[in-house]
Design goal:
The complex is a heterodimer of chains A (about 475) and B (about 230).
Chain A lengths: L7 H10 L1 H23 L4 H17 L1 H14 L3 E5 L2 H14 L4 E4 L3 H6 L1 H7 L3 E4 L2 H8 L16 H11 L10 H18 L2 E5 L2 E3 L5 E5 L3 H7 L3 E7 L3 E2 L2 H16 L6 E5 L13 E7 L3 H5 L14 H4 L2 H6 L10 H11 L2 H4 L11 H5 L6 H14 L5 H14 L2 H19 L4 E2 L6 H4 L4 E2 L6 H14 L1
Parallel strand pairs in A: 1-10, 2-3, 2-4, 4-7, 5-8, 7-10
Antiparallel strand pairs in A: 5-6, 6-9, 11-12
Chain B lengths: L1 H15 L5 H10 L13 H11 L3 E5 L2 H16 L3 E4 L3 H4 L9 E4 L8 E5 L2 E3 L4 E5 L6 H5 L3 E7 L3 E2 L2 H15 L4 E5 L4 E2 L7 E2 L6 E7 L4 H11 L4
Parallel strand pairs in B: 1-12, 2-3, 2-4, 4-7, 5-8, 7-12
Antiparallel strand pairs in B: 5-6, 6-9, 10-11
Helix pairs in contact in B: 3-8
Classes of the chains: A alpha/beta (about 475), B alpha/beta (about 230).
Bound molecules: iron/sulfur cluster.
Iron/sulfur cluster binds next to helix 14 and helix 16 of chain A.
């Protein structure tokens, strides 16, 4: 995984200056929560469902060795080959080996965050293979030589016009016009249809693995993943070891949460379960199927205090509701997983040293935890990572001393209240005339964008105490 | 490589696992029970199913018997393609339809390039999601679900189930005899994408249109819902 989270602040400043992209992010930040809320309000038992799935997920993770080996046994019985990879390198090599065993040149790929994490595409391309992303958003991003900026909507950062120009550059268009959005979709559909039909190997992700019967679950709206799973002669299903659920019903229960949280649908258009190669009498489907299951730190996370992050179902609701994500967008995070989920996961998959700025990309507003269908306490996990960051002395000295001073003051309330009262009074006096400040020392982050209102004369605590005194006297 | 990776991963998982017996693990899973499902949009199953199919941007027709179903299919094909041709899997239930009554010309097999319409006979219809269920095999090759421009699906009213849990019960029961099919598909609408500026477009890779025909003794109210929904389109 190529990563540049260490330049988060610079990336974010750059992103804020791109007004077109900021507008599209604003739109998502406004619309996606409304769509999700409508879907959830029409389902009375949503919270109960969330709790049920959480219990099942915790139960599966508590007994992951049991369920993973049950899954493996069933999957092998279904005719699959099951492979395990400790890290990205092993994972990519396993997949290249399978492709080379079949002399494959063309790979049709469905959307898979895990393969983004391991950098599979560039690895296979480096070995001379032709890899085609087939999810429309991923295809656009691949054509542009970029990375996804959102887990569910990879090309969120691009306008229709950007995409039109991209296709004009990359496709041999002839007389074809691309005026409307639907023209762009048809264009991609036609180009990709050929790729599906020619590919020797299909690669897809899995939203869940089912221990009791060895099936994997794939949820999509476009149907591209299903074409990858059904047309090429060889199918490789890629996911991580923590995705196992005990039963098929559990996967369906999870899909109830996923579809509503990601796109506000009761069910995505296609929820497919795949068990293995072509059966006797089948007239289509792959002849050989593989599961490649990646660990890449999951087994370590499982034994850490951050294990709840493994319960994530990758719905992206936390991105859509995050004031930081919707302001700066996915690319600013410099990692495959952006937003609150990414700010927790990235340091755990790489290192806090490389990614310690990400847990600071948080206002502690708590919206992510409120909407997370997996009920993951994201703000708590982010705070814990910041705490570790402090212990490891990774943040700038100025921040650390500032926080230490604040913590010391907060532990001495009378002094804290006296000092804040003095500060507020000074600010009140200085700003009395104009009612606001256009510049303030230590607060240029605020005042560079907007004025700081001059405070009232008294602090909240002073007003509160006065009020209580009044009440007691009455 | 995979062998040592496997043993290393499993040994790490065993360290963090609880080391419970299979029996205890299964007992614990049982004690967690089943997930709650959303309430249907109408108390009567057919009506609720039709409402959810419409919500999924499918179109719906009702047919009280097989002749009517064939006529409904003929009508649909002519309205959209000025043709009576379609492709269908080798499903005995489809082979037994009175195709000639309405002049429909089915070809049985897997959809080929240039063929725009496929017909499937659903194994089940799921009321909760307005989805239809098919699985791969001779009776319904996967290509017929995902490659046509229009996908027509017949659902027998008696095959409606209220929730996905009930669907799995039926699937488990059915595959006990036949073995596990390669692919099981819950399909809820035409293929769609909102990847370009959030604009919803149908026919991303799979079908642009998804037409469901509910077969059997469908109550009048449910039929009215289907009829009303089809009016503005005709
Ligand atoms: S952390 Fe929660 S909200 Fe965020 S992607 Fe994962 S499941 Fe969705």
């Amino acid at each position: 995984m190529e990563q540049h989270s260490d330049t988060f602040l610079a990336n974010a400043s750059k992103a804020l200056k791109n007004s077109g992209q900021a507008e599209r992010r604003d739109k998502i930040g406004l619309l996606a929560p409304q769509i999700r809320a409508a879907a959830i309000h029409s389902f009375d038992g949503f919270d109960e469902l969330r709790q049920h799935v959480k219990e099942v997920r915790q139960h599966s993770l508590n007994n992951l060795d049991y369920y993973l080996s049950q899954f493996e046994k069933e999957a092998v019985q279904n005719g699959n080959q099951v492979h395990f990879a400790r890290d990205s390198e092993e994972f990519n090599s396993l997949i290249l080996d399978i492709c080379q065993q079949h002399d494959a040149r063309r790979i049709a790929k469905g959307k898979s965050m895990v393969t983004e994490e391991t950098g599979l595409n560039s690895f296979l391309q480096g070995a001379g293979l032709n890899v085609r992303e087939t999810d429309l958003g991923e295809y656009i991003v691949q054509q542009a030589g970029e990375t996804p900026s959102h887990i569910v909507r990879p090309a969120l950062h691009k306008s229709a016009n950007d995409i039109r120009e991209l296709f004009q550059q990359k496709h041999d268009l002839g007389a074809r016009k691309l005026d409307k959005t639907s023209d762009l979709v048809v264009e991609a559909r036609n180009v990709l249809r050929k790729d599906f039909l020619q590919a020797e190997v299909g690669v897809i992700g899995a939203n869940a693995l089912i221990a009791e019967n060895g099936y994997s679950m794939l949820v999509t709206n476009e149907g591209n993943g299903d074409l990858c799973a059904n047309l090429p002669k060889v199918l490789i299903v890629c996911t991580t070891i923590d995705r196992v659920l005990p039963r098929a019903e559990d996967a369906s229960a999870m899909s109830r949460l996923l579809a509503r949280s990601a796109t506000g649908q009761p069910q995505s258009c296609y929820t497919s379960f795949y068990s293995g190669p072509r059966r006797e009498g089948d007239i289509d489907g792959p002849l050989e199927t593989h599961f490649v299951l990646l660990d890449n730190e999951r087994s370590n996370i499982l034994s850490s205090d951050y294990r709840e992050i493994l319960e994530c179902i990758r719905c992206a609701a936390c991105l859509d509701h995050c004031p930081i994500y919707t302001s700066v967008g996915g690319h600013a995070y410099g990692s495959i997983y952006p937003g609150p989920i990414g700010s927790v996961l990235t340091p755990l998959l790489t290192s806090l040293e490389q990614s310690h700025l990400l847990p600071n990309a948080c206002t502690s507003c708590g919206r992510c935890a409120e909407v997370c269908p997996a009920d993951i306490p994201l703000p708590d996990l982010l705070r814990d990572l910041r705490h570790e960051e402090g212990i490891k002395k990774l943040s700038p000295q100025r921040w650390r001393y500032g926080l230490k001073l604040h913590a010391w003051l907060a532990r001495h309330p009378p002094l804290y209240q006296t000092l804040t009262a003095i500060g507020i009074r000074i600010l009140h006096r200085l700003g009395r005339k104009r009612g606001r400040f256009s510049r303030l020392p230590f607060a240029d982050g605020w005042t560079s964008q907007r004025d700081f209102p001059a405070p009232q004369e008294n602090t909240f605590m002073q007003l509160y105490k006065a009020k209580m005194k009044q009440n007691n006297e009455r | 490589m995979s062998g040592s990776a496997r043993s290393e991963i499993f040994s790490r998982l065993r360290e963090t696992g609880r080391g419970e017996t299979a029996e205890n693990i299964q007992r614990e899973r049982l004690s967690l029970g089943s997930a709650p499902a959303p309430a249907p949009p109408a108390p009567e199953m057919c009506q609720a199913f039709i409402l959810n199919v419409l919500k999924n941007q499918g179109s719906v027709d009702c047919a009280s018997n097989r002749s009517e179903a064939v006529r409904a299919i003929a009508h649909y094909l002519y309205a959209h393609f000025h043709s009576y041709r379609l492709v269908a899997g080798n499903d005995p239930r489809l082979a037994a339809m009175p195709w000639r009554d309405a002049g429909v010309l089915p070809r049985f097999g897997s959809l080929q390039a240039g063929e725009p319409v496929a017909l499937s006979f659903a194994r089940l219809g799921v009321v909760e999601t307005g989805a239809i269920l098919t699985w791969t095999g001779k009776a319904n090759p996967a290509a017929n679900n995902f490659l046509p421009e229009h996908h027509i699906v017949l659902v027998d009213k008696n095959d409606l189930v209220p929730t996905m849990e009930k669907a799995w019960e039926k699937i488990h029961h059915a595959v006990e005899k036949t073995g596990r099919p390669r692919g099981i598909h819950f399909i809820a609408g035409p293929s769609s994408t909102a990847d370009i500026e959030g604009d919803l477009v149908y026919g991303a890779h799979g079908p642009q249109r998804w037409h469901v025909i509910l077969l059997g003794d469908v109550p009048g109210d449910a039929q009215n819902v289907a009829r009303d929904a089809s009016k503005p389109q005709s």
